[in-house]
Amino acid sequence: MSFEPLYPEPVPSPDAIVDVLVAAGIRYVFGLSGGHTGRIFGALEKRQDAIRTVLVREESLGAIMAETVGRMTGVPGVLLGQGPWILGNGLVGTIEAHLSASPLLLMTDFTDTPPFSLHGPYQSGTGDYGGWDARQAFRGVAKEVFTADEPNPAVIATQLAIKHALAGQPGPVAVIYGARALDGLAGGGALPRLYAAAPFVDLPKPGLPDLSGAITALKQSRRPLVVAGNGVRLAGAEAALARFAERWGAAVVTSPAGKGVFDEASPLSAGTYGGYGNPTAHRAVGEADLIVAAGTRLSASDTVGADPALIDPSRQTLIQIEIEPRNLSWTMPVRHPLQGDAAAILAALAEAAPAERGEAGWLSPQAERTVAFPASTGDAGLHAPEIIAAMQATLPADSIFTCDAGENRIFMMHYFRARGVGRFSQPAGAGPMGYAIPSAIAQKLLNPETPVVAVAGDGGFSMTMNGLLTAIEAAAPIIAVVMNNHALGWSQHSRGPFATSFAAFDYAAIARGMGCAGRKVRDADELTAALREAAESTGRDGRPFVIDVETSMDFSFAALAYANTRKPH
């Protein structure tokens, strides 16, 4: 690797900034041109062979798409656009990235007008008299905020922003460019000197901690269990987790955020645990004598308020694997805290398993994982479990699913069985509505040959259905299944009907007006036919397909609460 200074001859700073993105392996930039960032979009136009730019209709869509790319690939997703709207409209995806530890790069500008900063220029974010303070505003939601007012510092700020988006526990990092930073030449003899991006962005993996205590504890355990969280996904540790479970005969449950990192068809899987998990998972966690918390903080929402019937350090041995030191023994005392890369640690622990531990595991084979619920009757619409069952029975087994916040997410958490790994994403960090559609578009860009299905309620779907325009323009033919109960189901079932009801819109017809395909369905037979048609149509015609499912309000998410499911039915 050469450490000679870059650009002996000066180059436009936006070109040098895009070079940094390419060198860091960034494949997608999402955004909406505005302010001074138009110069970066101009530089991106020349590099579409290496990095794809996706124009979105509103910044919140781009933020969620960028967050999904970061979450699923481990390479920062990028949101590019004008300062106020990257912060304001993009806040949904940024907060989700912050709370879900997804690497995200926010590239924006001050919209400054030198030398008139003290005259309150239009939209200026420099924090000077009459303007808003972009630095301070972004610091409230980002790991780090870097600013640059000159060309060379703009290149360096981009390198450092990528580095810190990936360092330790990943997350969102903002870099804010001033007008002069994007309207000048970088390199040449200017100071500070510019160097290749690799030393800044290629971060070494931490070494293995001392595993001897954890290995001894595992050998002494009779009922080991892994709680797999989102950190397994971020570390790319899914294969290492599967190997560990097989070698030690360990049961595996996932936190809500970790759903999809372990194949729930495996006989070692007990499914998803926590507030709206399933009885088998609850029972398995409570019966385990040793728990490996891999990539999870064991937060209050995951452990149902630290209920000792689930996890109790006084009767169970806890091993925690975490990249971020502050997360170790944060929520409860851990006997064996292991700081480091989850993939490396799980792989090393797997290799340390005695040969005789390679058993089928201690769980009863494929025990019942859901609360039984009868099929819907009458004209009130289908029940959510029926819709989920139809999707799993009809759509290809390798389909990728995204879901929204709200009641539909709880139903998916409880009833949906993640097949394979990497085929399920959801907003488990911040829980924003409107997540499913843009996340599905990003998933389709990453996996163009795989069916991608967005599952949303009518409330969440209506927030981001304009994303279907982007799906058409970006050639990302997703399937959207709308559980249309004409209400905010969560709110109505928790506090009543006031300000929770919607008019009866036909979202399939609206989708057809956008140029998508769509069907309105009211019973199980129509749903099955529509799902088959959607799978064929998206592959054949390359257009998104929206299925608006008349959904009953007769069944509440409250029936799936931990208090009602902790004992097997």
CATH class of the largest domain: Alpha Beta
Question: Helix fraction?
Answer: 25-40%
Mean of the pLDDT scores? 92
Instruction: Report low-confidence residues grouped into runs of 5 or more.
Output: none
- Report the CATH superfamily of the largest domain: Thiamin diphosphate (ThDP)-binding fold, Pyr/PP domains
Measured distance between first and last alpha carbons: 61 Å
- Structural class category: alpha/beta
Q: What gyration radius follows from the Cα positions, in whole Å?
A: 25 Å
Provide the β-strand percentage band.
15-25%
Enumerate the strands of the largest sheet in spatial order, edge to edge or round the barrel.
Answer: 3-2-4-5-7-6
Sum up the overall morphology in one term: globular
Number of strands: 20
Helical run tally = 23
Largest sheet: 6 strands, parallel
Indicate the CATH architecture of the largest domain.
3-Layer(aba) Sandwich
Named CATH topology of the largest domain: Rossmann fold
Number of domains: 3
Describe the structure.
The protein is an alpha/beta fold. It has 23 helices and 20 strands. Strand 6 (144-148), helix 7 (151-166) and strand 7 (172-177) form a beta-alpha-beta unit. The mean pLDDT is 92.
